[in-house]
Amino acid sequence: MKYNDRISRQRSAQLFAEAKKYFPGGVNSPVRAFKSVSGPPLFIRRGEGCYMWDEDGNQLIDFCCSWGPLILGHNHPAVRQAITEAVSTGTSFGTPTRMGNMLGKLMIEHNRYLEMVRFVSSGTEAVMSAIRLARGYTGRNKVVKFEGCYHGHVDSLLVKAGSGLVTFGTSSSAGVPQSFTRETFVLPLDDEAALDVVFDQHGSDIACVIIEPIPANNGLLLQRPEFLKYLRQKTRTHGALLIFDEVISGFRVGFEGAAAYYQIEPDLLTYGKIIGGGMPVGAYGGKAEIMRYVAPEGPVYQAGTLSANPVTMAAGYATLQQLLQTELYVQLEQRTQQLVQGIQAHADQRGYALTIPHIASIFWFNFSRKTIRRADQIDTSSVARFKHLHHELLQRSIYLGPSAYEVAFLSAAHTQDILDYTITQICTALDLIFDTTPT
Protein backbone atom coordinates (compact mmCIF):
# COMPACT_ATOMS: atom_id res chain seq x y z
CA MET A 1 0.00 0.00 0.00
CA LYS A 2 1.26 3.47 -0.85
CA TYR A 3 0.73 5.96 1.96
CA ASN A 4 0.08 9.64 1.51
CA ASP A 5 2.52 11.79 3.49
CA ARG A 6 1.19 15.10 4.71
CA ILE A 7 4.06 15.84 7.06
CA SER A 8 7.67 16.27 6.05
CA ARG A 9 10.25 13.76 7.20
CA GLN A 10 13.00 15.09 4.96
CA ARG A 11 15.43 16.06 7.73
CA SER A 12 14.79 12.81 9.62
CA ALA A 13 15.40 10.86 6.40
CA GLN A 14 18.71 12.67 5.90
CA LEU A 15 19.79 11.97 9.47
CA PHE A 16 18.78 8.32 9.15
CA ALA A 17 20.85 7.94 5.98
CA GLU A 18 23.81 9.42 7.85
CA ALA A 19 23.20 7.23 10.92
CA LYS A 20 23.47 4.08 8.80
CA LYS A 21 27.15 4.91 8.34
CA TYR A 22 27.72 4.80 12.09
CA PHE A 23 25.28 2.30 13.63
CA PRO A 24 24.00 -1.17 12.57
CA GLY A 25 20.76 -0.48 10.75
CA GLY A 26 21.17 3.20 11.57
CA VAL A 27 19.92 2.79 15.15
CA ASN A 28 21.04 1.87 18.64
CA SER A 29 18.00 -0.30 19.40
CA PRO A 30 16.24 -2.33 16.67
CA VAL A 31 12.63 -1.16 17.01
CA ARG A 32 13.70 2.44 16.41
CA ALA A 33 14.41 1.66 12.76
CA PHE A 34 10.68 1.81 11.83
CA LYS A 35 11.06 -1.45 9.87
CA SER A 36 7.51 -2.59 10.69
CA VAL A 37 5.89 0.77 9.94
CA SER A 38 6.23 3.27 7.11
CA GLY A 39 8.92 5.77 6.22
CA PRO A 40 12.15 6.73 7.96
CA PRO A 41 12.25 6.92 11.77
CA LEU A 42 11.62 10.28 13.30
CA PHE A 43 14.65 11.97 14.85
CA ILE A 44 13.33 13.76 17.92
CA ARG A 45 14.79 17.11 18.91
CA ARG A 46 12.96 17.92 22.14
CA GLY A 47 10.00 17.07 24.34
CA GLU A 48 7.73 19.02 26.67
CA GLY A 49 4.72 17.64 28.55
CA CYS A 50 2.89 15.22 26.26
CA TYR A 51 4.54 16.65 23.11
CA MET A 52 7.66 15.90 21.08
CA TRP A 53 9.14 17.91 18.21
CA ASP A 54 11.18 16.19 15.51
CA GLU A 55 14.02 17.58 13.43
CA ASP A 56 11.58 18.62 10.70
CA GLY A 57 9.67 20.75 13.20
CA ASN A 58 6.63 18.46 13.45
CA GLN A 59 4.84 18.64 16.80
CA LEU A 60 3.56 15.25 17.96
CA ILE A 61 1.39 14.02 20.82
CA ASP A 62 3.48 11.26 22.35
CA PHE A 63 1.88 8.00 23.51
CA CYS A 64 5.18 6.12 23.57
CA CYS A 65 6.62 8.12 26.49
CA SER A 66 10.14 6.79 25.82
CA TRP A 67 8.66 3.27 26.02
CA GLY A 68 7.06 3.92 29.39
CA PRO A 69 9.32 5.77 31.85
CA LEU A 70 7.93 9.27 31.26
CA ILE A 71 4.84 8.82 33.40
CA LEU A 72 4.98 12.52 34.31
CA GLY A 73 5.54 13.61 30.70
CA HIS A 74 8.58 15.05 28.98
CA ASN A 75 10.86 17.49 30.77
CA HIS A 76 8.85 17.64 34.00
CA PRO A 77 9.98 20.71 35.98
CA ALA A 78 10.72 18.85 39.24
CA VAL A 79 12.70 16.14 37.45
CA ARG A 80 14.57 18.67 35.31
CA GLN A 81 15.51 20.67 38.39
CA ALA A 82 16.72 17.55 40.22
CA ILE A 83 18.88 16.55 37.26
CA THR A 84 20.31 20.07 36.87
CA GLU A 85 21.22 20.28 40.55
CA ALA A 86 22.82 16.84 40.50
CA VAL A 87 24.87 17.57 37.37
CA SER A 88 26.11 20.83 38.88
CA THR A 89 27.97 18.82 41.55
CA GLY A 90 29.35 16.13 39.21
CA THR A 91 28.09 13.35 36.97
CA SER A 92 29.67 10.20 38.38
CA PHE A 93 31.90 9.27 41.29
CA GLY A 94 31.99 5.47 41.41
CA THR A 95 31.20 5.74 45.13
CA PRO A 96 28.09 5.58 47.31
CA THR A 97 26.05 8.80 47.42
CA ARG A 98 23.38 10.20 49.69
CA MET A 99 20.96 10.35 46.78
CA GLY A 100 21.27 6.60 46.28
CA ASN A 101 20.29 6.11 49.92
CA MET A 102 17.35 8.45 49.51
CA LEU A 103 15.93 6.66 46.47
CA GLY A 104 16.47 3.21 47.99
CA LYS A 105 14.74 4.28 51.21
CA LEU A 106 11.83 5.83 49.32
CA MET A 107 11.24 2.66 47.32
CA ILE A 108 11.49 0.30 50.30
CA GLU A 109 9.39 2.37 52.68
CA HIS A 110 6.51 2.55 50.22
CA ASN A 111 6.67 -0.93 48.68
CA ARG A 112 5.78 -3.83 50.99
CA TYR A 113 7.44 -6.33 48.60
CA LEU A 114 10.88 -4.72 48.82
CA GLU A 115 13.09 -5.31 51.87
CA MET A 116 16.40 -4.65 50.11
CA VAL A 117 17.29 -3.37 46.64
CA ARG A 118 20.37 -3.11 44.39
CA PHE A 119 20.58 -0.50 41.63
CA VAL A 120 22.01 -1.32 38.20
CA SER A 121 22.03 0.53 34.87
CA SER A 122 19.29 -1.17 32.83
CA GLY A 123 16.34 -3.54 32.99
CA THR A 124 18.36 -6.22 31.21
CA GLU A 125 21.07 -5.94 33.86
CA ALA A 126 18.46 -6.17 36.62
CA VAL A 127 17.01 -9.38 35.18
CA MET A 128 20.44 -10.91 34.55
CA SER A 129 21.41 -10.21 38.16
CA ALA A 130 18.15 -11.52 39.60
CA ILE A 131 18.50 -14.80 37.67
CA ARG A 132 22.07 -15.23 38.91
CA LEU A 133 20.94 -14.51 42.46
CA ALA A 134 18.11 -17.05 42.21
CA ARG A 135 20.55 -19.71 41.07
CA GLY A 136 23.07 -18.82 43.76
CA TYR A 137 20.43 -18.80 46.51
CA THR A 138 18.75 -22.08 45.54
CA GLY A 139 21.81 -23.97 44.27
CA ARG A 140 19.79 -24.93 41.18
CA ASN A 141 20.32 -24.17 37.49
CA LYS A 142 17.08 -24.30 35.49
CA VAL A 143 14.94 -21.25 34.73
CA VAL A 144 11.34 -21.18 33.56
CA LYS A 145 10.08 -18.31 31.40
CA PHE A 146 6.98 -17.75 29.30
CA GLU A 147 6.55 -17.25 25.59
CA GLY A 148 5.50 -13.67 24.95
CA CYS A 149 7.38 -12.25 27.94
CA TYR A 150 10.52 -10.27 27.19
CA HIS A 151 13.18 -9.85 29.86
CA GLY A 152 15.85 -7.91 28.03
CA HIS A 153 18.65 -9.31 25.92
CA VAL A 154 19.95 -11.77 28.53
CA ASP A 155 21.50 -14.76 26.71
CA SER A 156 19.70 -17.46 28.67
CA LEU A 157 16.34 -15.69 28.28
CA LEU A 158 16.64 -14.65 24.64
CA VAL A 159 14.88 -17.83 23.67
CA LYS A 160 11.70 -18.98 21.99
CA ALA A 161 9.53 -22.02 22.61
CA GLY A 162 10.31 -25.39 21.10
CA SER A 163 7.76 -27.77 19.62
CA GLY A 164 6.27 -29.42 22.71
CA LEU A 165 4.02 -28.42 25.59
CA VAL A 166 7.09 -28.06 27.79
CA THR A 167 10.40 -27.64 26.00
CA PHE A 168 13.86 -26.30 26.49
CA GLY A 169 14.16 -22.94 24.81
CA THR A 170 15.85 -22.54 21.47
CA SER A 171 17.89 -19.46 20.68
CA SER A 172 16.03 -16.55 19.13
CA SER A 173 19.24 -14.66 18.36
CA ALA A 174 22.49 -15.48 16.65
CA GLY A 175 25.36 -15.51 19.09
CA VAL A 176 23.47 -17.31 21.87
CA PRO A 177 24.93 -20.83 22.29
CA GLN A 178 22.43 -23.66 22.48
CA SER A 179 24.15 -24.74 25.70
CA PHE A 180 22.89 -21.53 27.33
CA THR A 181 19.29 -22.09 26.30
CA ARG A 182 19.30 -25.66 27.59
CA GLU A 183 19.05 -24.20 31.06
CA THR A 184 15.76 -22.46 30.16
CA PHE A 185 12.27 -23.92 29.84
CA VAL A 186 9.77 -21.91 27.79
CA LEU A 187 6.08 -22.38 28.64
CA PRO A 188 2.90 -20.91 27.19
CA LEU A 189 1.18 -18.25 29.26
CA ASP A 190 -2.25 -18.94 30.75
CA ASP A 191 -1.63 -22.69 31.04
CA GLU A 192 -1.63 -24.36 34.46
CA ALA A 193 -1.19 -27.79 32.88
CA ALA A 194 2.16 -26.79 31.41
CA LEU A 195 3.30 -25.63 34.84
CA ASP A 196 2.29 -28.96 36.32
CA VAL A 197 4.27 -30.89 33.74
CA VAL A 198 7.49 -28.90 34.06
CA PHE A 199 7.47 -29.01 37.85
CA ASP A 200 6.52 -32.70 37.96
CA GLN A 201 9.45 -33.52 35.67
CA HIS A 202 12.07 -30.99 36.77
CA GLY A 203 10.89 -29.39 40.02
CA SER A 204 14.04 -30.18 41.99
CA ASP A 205 16.23 -28.51 39.32
CA ILE A 206 14.26 -25.27 38.85
CA ALA A 207 15.89 -22.24 40.49
CA CYS A 208 13.21 -19.75 39.51
CA VAL A 209 10.28 -18.83 37.36
CA ILE A 210 10.37 -15.37 35.80
CA ILE A 211 7.31 -13.67 34.36
CA GLU A 212 6.06 -10.25 33.45
CA PRO A 213 2.95 -10.28 35.67
CA ILE A 214 1.57 -7.82 33.13
CA PRO A 215 3.14 -9.01 29.87
CA ALA A 216 3.58 -5.84 27.82
CA ASN A 217 6.34 -6.54 25.32
CA ASN A 218 4.44 -8.75 22.88
CA GLY A 219 1.11 -7.03 22.93
CA LEU A 220 -0.69 -6.52 26.25
CA LEU A 221 -1.33 -10.11 27.33
CA LEU A 222 -3.34 -9.59 30.50
CA GLN A 223 -3.30 -12.74 32.60
CA ARG A 224 -5.99 -14.30 34.75
CA PRO A 225 -5.24 -13.59 38.44
CA GLU A 226 -5.90 -17.28 39.07
CA PHE A 227 -3.02 -18.24 36.79
CA LEU A 228 -0.58 -15.90 38.53
CA LYS A 229 -1.69 -17.15 41.95
CA TYR A 230 -1.27 -20.76 40.81
CA LEU A 231 2.24 -19.88 39.69
CA ARG A 232 3.00 -18.49 43.15
CA GLN A 233 1.65 -21.65 44.77
CA LYS A 234 3.60 -23.94 42.45
CA THR A 235 6.94 -22.23 43.02
CA ARG A 236 6.51 -22.28 46.80
CA THR A 237 5.62 -25.96 46.79
CA HIS A 238 8.78 -26.85 44.87
CA GLY A 239 11.20 -24.43 46.53
CA ALA A 240 11.74 -22.32 43.41
CA LEU A 241 11.85 -18.52 43.51
CA LEU A 242 9.24 -16.43 41.76
CA ILE A 243 10.60 -13.35 39.96
CA PHE A 244 8.24 -10.64 38.80
CA ASP A 245 9.77 -8.63 35.96
CA GLU A 246 8.18 -5.24 36.57
CA VAL A 247 10.48 -3.19 34.38
CA ILE A 248 7.35 -1.90 32.61
CA SER A 249 4.59 -2.41 35.19
CA GLY A 250 6.58 -1.28 38.23
CA PHE A 251 5.44 2.16 39.41
CA ARG A 252 3.24 2.32 36.29
CA VAL A 253 0.14 0.42 37.47
CA GLY A 254 0.61 1.76 40.99
CA PHE A 255 3.47 2.59 43.31
CA GLU A 256 3.81 -1.07 44.30
CA GLY A 257 3.29 -2.30 40.75
CA ALA A 258 1.61 -5.49 39.60
CA ALA A 259 2.55 -7.33 42.80
CA ALA A 260 0.16 -5.13 44.76
CA TYR A 261 -2.37 -4.99 41.92
CA TYR A 262 -2.76 -8.77 42.04
CA GLN A 263 -1.90 -9.10 45.75
CA ILE A 264 0.84 -11.64 45.04
CA GLU A 265 4.19 -11.58 46.82
CA PRO A 266 7.12 -12.58 44.59
CA ASP A 267 10.52 -13.47 46.00
CA LEU A 268 12.40 -11.05 43.74
CA LEU A 269 11.37 -8.15 41.53
CA THR A 270 13.11 -6.30 38.73
CA TYR A 271 12.52 -2.65 37.92
CA GLY A 272 13.61 -0.04 35.40
CA LYS A 273 12.03 2.70 33.30
CA ILE A 274 10.17 4.94 35.74
CA ILE A 275 12.62 4.75 38.65
CA GLY A 276 15.17 6.61 36.51
CA GLY A 277 12.90 9.52 35.64
CA GLY A 278 14.00 9.24 32.00
CA MET A 279 17.63 8.37 32.82
CA PRO A 280 19.12 4.86 32.26
CA VAL A 281 18.44 2.65 35.28
CA GLY A 282 17.50 -0.77 36.57
CA ALA A 283 17.05 -2.36 39.99
CA TYR A 284 16.37 -5.73 41.52
CA GLY A 285 15.19 -6.41 45.01
CA GLY A 286 12.95 -8.40 47.28
CA LYS A 287 13.31 -10.37 50.45
CA ALA A 288 16.32 -9.41 52.57
CA GLU A 289 17.21 -13.04 53.21
CA ILE A 290 17.72 -13.57 49.49
CA MET A 291 19.29 -10.18 48.74
CA ARG A 292 21.97 -10.78 51.37
CA TYR A 293 23.40 -13.43 49.07
CA VAL A 294 24.63 -10.58 46.84
CA ALA A 295 28.30 -9.52 47.15
CA PRO A 296 29.92 -8.13 49.20
CA GLU A 297 27.62 -9.62 51.85
CA GLY A 298 27.12 -12.92 50.06
CA PRO A 299 28.68 -15.18 47.41
CA VAL A 300 26.71 -14.00 44.33
CA TYR A 301 28.87 -11.47 42.48
CA GLN A 302 27.36 -8.47 40.73
CA ALA A 303 28.92 -5.06 40.16
CA GLY A 304 28.61 -1.94 38.01
CA THR A 305 30.72 1.18 37.65
CA LEU A 306 27.71 3.40 36.94
CA SER A 307 25.24 1.62 39.22
CA ALA A 308 23.28 4.14 41.33
CA ASN A 309 24.65 7.00 39.24
CA PRO A 310 23.89 10.19 41.23
CA VAL A 311 22.18 11.99 38.34
CA THR A 312 19.91 9.02 37.71
CA MET A 313 19.17 8.66 41.43
CA ALA A 314 18.17 12.33 41.60
CA ALA A 315 15.86 12.02 38.61
CA GLY A 316 14.29 8.86 39.99
CA TYR A 317 13.79 10.35 43.44
CA ALA A 318 12.07 13.42 42.01
CA THR A 319 9.81 11.23 39.88
CA LEU A 320 8.80 8.84 42.65
CA GLN A 321 8.07 11.72 45.01
CA GLN A 322 5.47 12.90 42.50
CA LEU A 323 4.03 9.38 42.24
CA LEU A 324 3.40 9.21 45.98
CA GLN A 325 0.40 11.44 45.26
CA THR A 326 -2.23 8.69 45.12
CA GLU A 327 -4.67 10.74 43.07
CA LEU A 328 -2.20 10.78 40.16
CA TYR A 329 -2.71 7.06 39.53
CA VAL A 330 -6.47 7.42 39.85
CA GLN A 331 -6.47 10.24 37.30
CA LEU A 332 -4.23 8.33 34.89
CA GLU A 333 -6.47 5.27 35.02
CA GLN A 334 -9.64 7.32 34.53
CA ARG A 335 -8.22 9.13 31.52
CA THR A 336 -6.94 5.90 29.99
CA GLN A 337 -10.37 4.32 30.38
CA GLN A 338 -11.97 7.37 28.80
CA LEU A 339 -9.58 7.23 25.83
CA VAL A 340 -10.08 3.51 25.32
CA GLN A 341 -13.85 3.61 25.75
CA GLY A 342 -14.23 6.47 23.29
CA ILE A 343 -12.31 4.58 20.59
CA GLN A 344 -13.88 1.21 21.43
CA ALA A 345 -17.42 2.59 21.24
CA HIS A 346 -16.74 3.84 17.71
CA ALA A 347 -15.20 0.51 16.68
CA ASP A 348 -18.12 -1.44 18.15
CA GLN A 349 -20.67 0.75 16.42
CA ARG A 350 -18.98 0.22 13.05
CA GLY A 351 -18.32 -3.49 13.65
CA TYR A 352 -14.55 -3.13 13.33
CA ALA A 353 -12.29 -6.01 14.36
CA LEU A 354 -10.64 -4.08 17.18
CA THR A 355 -10.35 -4.35 20.93
CA ILE A 356 -8.11 -2.29 23.18
CA PRO A 357 -6.84 -4.23 26.20
CA HIS A 358 -5.77 -1.82 28.93
CA ILE A 359 -4.68 -1.68 32.53
CA ALA A 360 -3.91 1.43 34.57
CA SER A 361 -2.25 3.79 32.03
CA ILE A 362 -1.15 1.10 29.53
CA PHE A 363 -3.14 0.18 26.42
CA TRP A 364 -2.70 -1.79 23.20
CA PHE A 365 -4.43 -1.93 19.81
CA ASN A 366 -5.51 -5.53 19.17
CA PHE A 367 -6.99 -5.91 15.69
CA SER A 368 -9.23 -8.76 16.77
CA ARG A 369 -12.44 -9.27 18.72
CA LYS A 370 -10.85 -12.08 20.72
CA THR A 371 -9.39 -11.90 24.20
CA ILE A 372 -5.65 -12.38 23.79
CA ARG A 373 -3.68 -13.88 26.68
CA ARG A 374 -0.92 -15.69 24.78
CA ALA A 375 1.52 -14.62 22.08
CA ASP A 376 0.43 -17.39 19.70
CA GLN A 377 -3.14 -16.03 19.74
CA ILE A 378 -2.14 -12.78 18.03
CA ASP A 379 -3.24 -12.62 14.40
CA THR A 380 -0.06 -11.78 12.49
CA SER A 381 -2.12 -10.26 9.67
CA SER A 382 -3.04 -7.45 12.07
CA VAL A 383 0.46 -6.03 11.59
CA ALA A 384 -0.65 -4.56 8.24
CA ARG A 385 -3.55 -2.74 9.87
CA PHE A 386 -1.30 -1.32 12.58
CA LYS A 387 1.18 -0.12 9.96
CA HIS A 388 -1.64 1.82 8.31
CA LEU A 389 -2.87 3.15 11.66
CA HIS A 390 0.61 4.27 12.69
CA HIS A 391 1.07 6.16 9.43
CA GLU A 392 -2.35 7.84 9.55
CA LEU A 393 -1.81 8.94 13.13
CA LEU A 394 1.58 10.44 12.32
CA GLN A 395 -0.17 12.57 9.70
CA ARG A 396 -2.48 13.70 12.51
CA SER A 397 0.40 14.53 14.87
CA ILE A 398 -0.04 11.45 17.09
CA TYR A 399 2.96 9.25 17.84
CA LEU A 400 2.75 5.58 18.82
CA GLY A 401 5.65 3.20 19.30
CA PRO A 402 6.59 1.87 15.83
CA SER A 403 5.50 -1.75 16.26
CA ALA A 404 2.18 -3.59 16.31
CA TYR A 405 3.41 -5.57 19.32
CA GLU A 406 4.31 -2.59 21.48
CA VAL A 407 1.96 -1.06 24.03
CA ALA A 408 1.13 2.62 24.43
CA PHE A 409 1.19 4.78 27.55
CA LEU A 410 -0.55 7.80 28.98
CA SER A 411 1.31 10.36 31.06
CA ALA A 412 0.10 12.87 33.61
CA ALA A 413 0.68 15.52 30.94
CA HIS A 414 -2.04 14.19 28.62
CA THR A 415 -4.89 16.61 29.25
CA GLN A 416 -8.61 16.23 28.63
CA ASP A 417 -8.45 18.34 25.46
CA ILE A 418 -5.58 16.24 24.13
CA LEU A 419 -7.52 13.02 24.74
CA ASP A 420 -10.65 14.38 23.06
CA TYR A 421 -8.56 15.29 19.99
CA THR A 422 -6.88 11.88 20.04
CA ILE A 423 -10.17 9.98 20.18
CA THR A 424 -11.49 11.91 17.18
CA GLN A 425 -8.34 11.41 15.14
CA ILE A 426 -7.98 7.70 15.92
CA CYS A 427 -11.63 7.08 15.02
CA THR A 428 -11.11 8.91 11.72
CA ALA A 429 -7.99 6.84 11.04
CA LEU A 430 -9.84 3.61 11.82
CA ASP A 431 -12.53 4.52 9.29
CA LEU A 432 -9.84 4.85 6.63
CA ILE A 433 -8.11 1.62 7.67
CA PHE A 434 -11.19 -0.57 7.68
CA ASP A 435 -12.46 0.90 4.42
CA THR A 436 -9.16 -0.05 2.78
CA THR A 437 -7.78 -3.54 2.43
CA PRO A 438 -4.27 -3.53 3.89
CA THR A 439 -1.48 -5.10 1.88
Description of the structure:
With 439 residues, this protein is of the alpha/beta class. It has two domains: 10-75 and 326-434, Alpha-Beta Complex (Aspartate Aminotransferase, domain 1), CATH 3.90.1150.10; 77-323, Type I PLP-dependent aspartate aminotransferase-like (Major domain) (Aspartate Aminotransferase, domain 2). The protein has helices at residues 10-19, 77-87, 98-109, 123-138, 178-181, 192-202, 225-238, 257-262, 288-291, 310-323, 326-350, 382-395, 416-434; strands spanning 44-48, 51-54, 59-62, 116-120, 142-146, 159-160, 167-168, 170-171, 184-187, 206-211, 241-245, 268-272, 282-286, 358-359, 362-363, 398-399, 408-409. It has an eight-stranded mixed sheet, with helices on both faces. Strands 1-2-3-16 form a four-stranded mixed sheet. Strand 1 and strand 2 form a beta hairpin. Helix 3 (98-109) runs parallel beside helix 10 (310-323), helix 6 runs parallel beside helix 7 and helix 12 packs across helix 13 (416-434). It is globular. Mean pLDDT is 93; it is low at 162-167.
